[in-house]
TrEMBL record:
<feature type="active site" description="Proton acceptor">
    <location>
        <position position="9"/>
    </location>
</feature>
<feature type="active site" description="Proton donor">
    <location>
        <position position="131"/>
    </location>
</feature>
<protein>
    <recommendedName>
        <fullName>1-(5-phosphoribosyl)-5-[(5-phosphoribosylamino)methylideneamino] imidazole-4-carboxamide isomerase</fullName>
        <ecNumber>5.3.1.16</ecNumber>
    </recommendedName>
</protein>
<keyword id="KW-0413">Isomerase</keyword>
<dbReference type="InterPro" id="IPR023016">
    <property type="entry name" value="HisA/PriA"/>
</dbReference>
<dbReference type="InterPro" id="IPR011060">
    <property type="entry name" value="RibuloseP-bd_barrel"/>
</dbReference>
<keyword id="KW-0028">Amino-acid biosynthesis</keyword>
<dbReference type="InterPro" id="IPR044524">
    <property type="entry name" value="Isoase_HisA-like"/>
</dbReference>
<dbReference type="InterPro" id="IPR006063">
    <property type="entry name" value="HisA_bact_arch"/>
</dbReference>
<dbReference type="Pfam" id="PF00977">
    <property type="entry name" value="His_biosynth"/>
</dbReference>
<comment type="similarity">
    <text>Belongs to the HisA/HisF family.</text>
</comment>
<dbReference type="InterPro" id="IPR013785">
    <property type="entry name" value="Aldolase_TIM"/>
</dbReference>
<keyword id="KW-0963">Cytoplasm</keyword>
<dbReference type="InterPro" id="IPR006062">
    <property type="entry name" value="His_biosynth"/>
</dbReference>
<keyword id="KW-0368">Histidine biosynthesis</keyword>
<dbReference type="GO" id="GO:0003949">
    <property type="term" value="F:1-(5-phosphoribosyl)-5-[(5-phosphoribosylamino)methylideneamino]imidazole-4-carboxamide isomerase activity"/>
</dbReference>
<comment type="pathway">
    <text>Amino-acid biosynthesis; L-histidine biosynthesis; L-histidine from 5-phospho-alpha-D-ribose 1-diphosphate: step 4/9.</text>
</comment>
Amino acid sequence: MTLPIPAIDLRDGNVVRLFKGDYTRQTTFDVEPLDLATRYAREGATWLHVVDLDGARSGRFENLPVVTRLVAAGALDVQAGGGVRDEEGVRRLLDTGVGRVVVGSIAIREPATVAGWIDRLGPERIVLALDTRWRDGAWTLPSAGWTADEARTLDELLPFYREAGARHLLCTDIDRDGTMTGPNLSLYEHIAHVAPGFQVQASGGVRSLADIEALVARRLDGVILGRALLQGEFTLRDALRTAEVAC
């Protein structure tokens, strides 16, 4: 079953959403992160996706106290990322009780390093965040909170990580993120063709229950829900019900 996973993006301890990853186009929501997580748990969530947007740019996990409170509440399993640059950072998050650590920039820049983490810590503890943007005929992989261009492409790294034993892959079409224009279904079809076998979490652009049905039809493992829930386009309870019926 494709699992709807609510997301909380953090900046200065606040719940925010960016438009296409642009830090100058931020919407701040008047809700405390813990209150929002509690609401999602009450509606049936089992996992919560947390992104430290400050850390994604700085390379330091700057909202760790907030994440620690979310984990300590015990209502949800948490996967968290943003600013993880070394194994000490991974272990620091795991020590808080985070179930899975999401790694992005370093997974693009130093794939051999992250392959070592997967080997030592196990594939269930690491989620690869290979967020991508279509440029010049290829799926490129910006890093550092999507602010820096990298030479490697999605098609280069997917087979490498499959051979390294990676299991969880989160992939966002950056040009859809926060836009409410629908997910890029062709991207996830492409991933399944290039490197089948990953448990893929789709992210970016989901605006309706029909979008969730379309992602379920592609047999994805999860779908990250951010702005649509925060703006009340549908409830998490409705998303979970839709995914269950469509599977």
